[in-house]
Predict the structure of ABC-2 type transport system permease protein.
Amino acid sequence: MPTPEPRTAPGGVIHDIGYQRYEGPRLGRRHIFGALYLHSLRTAFGLGRSAKAKIFPLLIMSVIGVVAVVLTAIRVQTGQAPVSYAQFPETLTILIVFFCAAVSPELVSRDLQNGVLPLYFARPLERTDYALAKLGALVTATFLLLAVPLTVMFAGAAFSAANLSGVWREFGDYLPALLYAGLHAVVFSSVAVLVASLVKRRAVAAAAVVAAFLVTTPVQGVLLVLPYQTTSELSGLVNPASLVAGVGDWLFEKSNVLGIGGFGPLYGLVTVALVAGCVALLFARYRKVARS
C-alpha cells in the first residue's frame, strides 16, 4: 500500500508588478480648491472638452465681441459713444442670462447627475469649498465675458483720444464700468448656480435658470403701470436684472433711467441680501447632498 504524501498548507505567491507607494508631497485643501476652481473655469468656456461643449459659450462670446467692436468703430469714426461703458453690461443682460443658464448646469448639475460628489468629498475638501469653487468659476467667467469687450472699447477710445487728459477721462469712465460688470457677474452667477444645484438634468436646469430671471418680469410690469410713484420706483426689486440695474443707476450712472427715485440704498441692501441668501442656500444644499 503506497504511503500518502504529507498535506501542506495552501500558500500563494506575491508578484511584484511595479506598483510603488506615493512618496511625493501630499497637497492639501487649498491646492484641491485651486485645482477645482481652475478646472471649473476651463469648463465654463468648454476648454478641454468636446467641440459641442464649446459651441454655446463661444457663440455668446462672439456676439458680445462683435457688439464691442462695432461700438468701438462707431466711437472712433464719429467721436460719439452710442453706449457708455456702464450701459454696456445692461445692454447685454439677456446674453448674460443665457450664458449663466448654459454654463451653470455644466458646473454643478453634471456632478449631481453622474453621482461623483462622494468622490470629491472623500478628499480633504469641505462642502463649502466645492460650492465656492463652482460659484467663483462662474463669477470669473461672467466677469471676463464683460470685461474683455469693455477693455477693447476702452483701448479704441484711448487710442483715438486727442491727448492724455482724454485718455485719463476715458479711464475714469472705464474703471467704474468694470466694477459694474463685476456686480453683474456676482449677482447673476449666485442665482444661476443656486438654481442649477437643485436640478440634476442639465437641460431642465438651464430652463430653470432662465425662468428664475424672467418669471418676475410680469410682476414688475404690473407694478410699473400702477398709478403710484413709490410702487413704480420699487418695482425693480422683484427682478434680479432690474435690481442690478437699479444699483447701477444709483452708483455708476447717476441717470435714474430705471426711475428708482431715492431708493438707491435700498436697492444696494437688497442686492447684498440676495447674494448672501443665495450663497447660504448653496451651502445648505451641499450639506444636504453630502448627508444623503
